[in-house]
Amino acid sequence: MGEFFDARYRLEFISTGKQRVYWGNQLVIELPEMSIVGRVKAGGGSYISELKLCNAQLEDVGLRLLVAGNDSTYYVTGLTESSGFGYINGHKKAVHIMQRWPDHF
Fold it and tell me: Alpha-carbon distance 37 to 57, whole Å?
């Protein structure tokens, strides 16, 4: 079994130009020796696409995120999609996409 460690992350809106026009979203995961960035142009909305891009990069270096957004039953609604929160089947409350999951470590 592998080793567990915590990493810092940021969910960010990206804007461009002098007028700060909205471009899209990004998820940045700060690891001890590198940063992983998942960036998606406007229209993604829920950070799920950004998480999938980060997952692919992490897999390349043998790492895996244990977060709610990677649960196969995680989903968002129209009211939660741009907030970073969503739901997991069988779990009564909203969970953040980057919340440690399963939550019983």
Answer: 8
